[in-house]
């Protein structure tokens, strides 16, 4: 029968109390474990904590107790924070948005870097969250809730890796109310009316943003993400015979390919664009630069349309506009999600909003109901009308 693990407390010559025990590590070497205490009572409690920790997790837990956040950050950077690797179209390692994770890691190191991992609490993470909400971004404004949700998501994964590696017994994220709240994100409620769309397209033709017109038409008539078309669409994915576009799996958020049919104006626009292109299959369809947002902002200004979030139109608003039009055209919500490339129905729902025309239609329905309800009818007829 193994001897029961024990230890003792003592006070040194300076009057400082300590808890102390002896262990044998995984290499067979005997080591002394000593921790400082406030007083004799505190030393006894610390000793009990050390013994419980050793019984539950062994001597490795004492090594882990010395680790700081930077140690975990180094481990994450060396093993996880790398460009994505794919096998047969499936991501097997790394990150698709590795740059975001690297930027977050810099901020995490600045705030938590030298803190012992096991001393980081839920309150520490919440304090970081509140600090970041007041810290201006490079756009000279505080970060949005959506930005912070993604940033905290990176921190949650890093700490989760620490749990899996046995460096911390439990993630601080699980010790309080959820800090990541997708429901609190600002909904994208700005969409283009038909009149706004006509003014915007006209402004593109008359201004220096003429090269944006084909992209805007395709975004409005497909509901695709800007990056899927502007950055990744190649002529090999455009079929003028079947009038379809293929969004390749490696360029989508969900890593699933999808096909989209062209509208007549898309067909005419892309046909004209193809005739002036190099006609190379691997060439980009849209020759856009990193200033595409700046050009779009100029076009909106020329069209008299407010640009920029939260109250104006952005390029992503074109995707939102397409989703709203599909729903108003009586397409089932789950099919709208298929067209947009969503994997979850609730994601599609977030894109839908009631524009001026929809709210006017709702008011007309209420007016019809009120007119019918004001006519002399039996109670049962009114109940049936409500149901």
Structure description:
It is a single chain. With 387 residues, the protein is mostly helical. The protein folds into four domains: 58 residues, no CATH class; 89 residues, Orthogonal Bundle (DNA polymerase, domain 1), CATH 1.10.150; 160 residues, Intergrase catalytic core (hpI Integrase, Chain A, Orthogonal Bundle), CATH 1.10.443.10; 25 residues, no CATH class. A hairpin with a 4-residue loop joins strand 6 and strand 7. Helix 3 packs antiparallel against helix 4, helix 7 crosses helix 11 and helix 8 packs parallel to helix 12.
Low-confidence stretches: none
Helix percent reads 40-55%
Strand content: 5-15%
Rg (CA only):
30 Å
Helix and strand layout, with pairings?
Layout: E1 7-11, E2 17-24, E3 30-37, H1 40-57, H2 60-64, H3 69-79, E4 85-87, E5 90-93, H4 98-112, H5 122-133, H6 145-164, H7 194-206, H8 213-222, H9 226-231, E6 238-239, E7 244-247, E8 258-261, H10 264-275, H11 292-303, H12 315-328, H13 333-340, H14 345-350, H15 356-374, H16 379-386
Helix pairs in contact: 3-4, 7-11, 8-10, 8-12
Describe the structure using short key phrases:
387 residues; mainly alpha; DNA polymerase, domain 1; hpI Integrase, Chain A; 4 domains; 3-stranded antiparallel β-sheet; 8 strands; elongated
Overview in brief:
The protein is mainly alpha-helical and 387 residues long. It is built from 16 helices and eight strands.
């Amino acid at each position: 029968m193994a001897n029961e693990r024990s230890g003792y407390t003592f006070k040194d010559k300076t009057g400082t109390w300590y808890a102390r025990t002896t262990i044998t590590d995984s290499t067979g070497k005997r080591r002394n474990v000593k921790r400082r205490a406030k007083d004799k009572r505190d030393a006894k409690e610390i000793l009990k904590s050390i013994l419980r920790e050793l019984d539950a997790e062994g001597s490795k837990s004492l090594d882990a107790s010395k680790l700081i956040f930077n140690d975990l950050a180094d481990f994450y950077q060396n093993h996880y924070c790398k460009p994505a690797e794919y096998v047969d179209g499936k991501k097997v390692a790394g990150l698709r948005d590795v740059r975001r994770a690297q930027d977050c890691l810099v901020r995490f190191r600045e705030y938590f870097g030298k803190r012992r991992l096991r001393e980081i609490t839920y309150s520490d993470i919440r304090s970081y969250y509140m600090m970041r909400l007041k810290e201006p971004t490079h756009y000279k404004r505080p970060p949005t809730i959506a930005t912070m949700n993604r940033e905290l998501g990176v921190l949650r994964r890093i700490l989760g890796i620490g749990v899996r590696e046995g460096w911390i017994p439990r993630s601080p994220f699980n010790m309080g109310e959820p800090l990541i709240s997708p429901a609190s994100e600002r909904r994208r409620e700005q969409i283009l009316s038909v009149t706004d769309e006509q003014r915007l397209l006209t402004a593109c033709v008359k201004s220096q943003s003429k090269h944006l017109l084909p992209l805007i038409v395709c975004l409005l008539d497909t509901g695709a993400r800007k990056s899927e078309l502007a950055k990744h669409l190649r002529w090999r994915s455009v079929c003028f015979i079947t009038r379809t576009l293929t969004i390749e799996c490696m360029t989508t958020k969900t890593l699933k390919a999808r096909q989209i049919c062209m509208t007549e104006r898309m067909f005419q626009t892309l046909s004209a664009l193809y005739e002036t292109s190099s006609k190379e299959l691997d060439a980009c369809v849209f020759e856009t630069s990193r200033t595409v947002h700046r050009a779009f902002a100029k076009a909106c200004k020329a069209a008299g349309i407010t640009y920029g979030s939260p109250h104006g139109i952005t390029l992503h608003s074109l995707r939102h506009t397409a989703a709203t039009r599909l729903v108003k055209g009586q397409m089932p919500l789950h099919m709208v999600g298929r067209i947009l490339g969503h994997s979850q129905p609730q994601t599609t729902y977030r894109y839908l909003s009631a524009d001026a025309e929809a709210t006017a239609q709702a008011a007309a329905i209420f007016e019809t109901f009120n007119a019918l309800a004001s006519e002399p009818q039996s109670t049962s007829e009114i109940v049936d009308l409500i149901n």
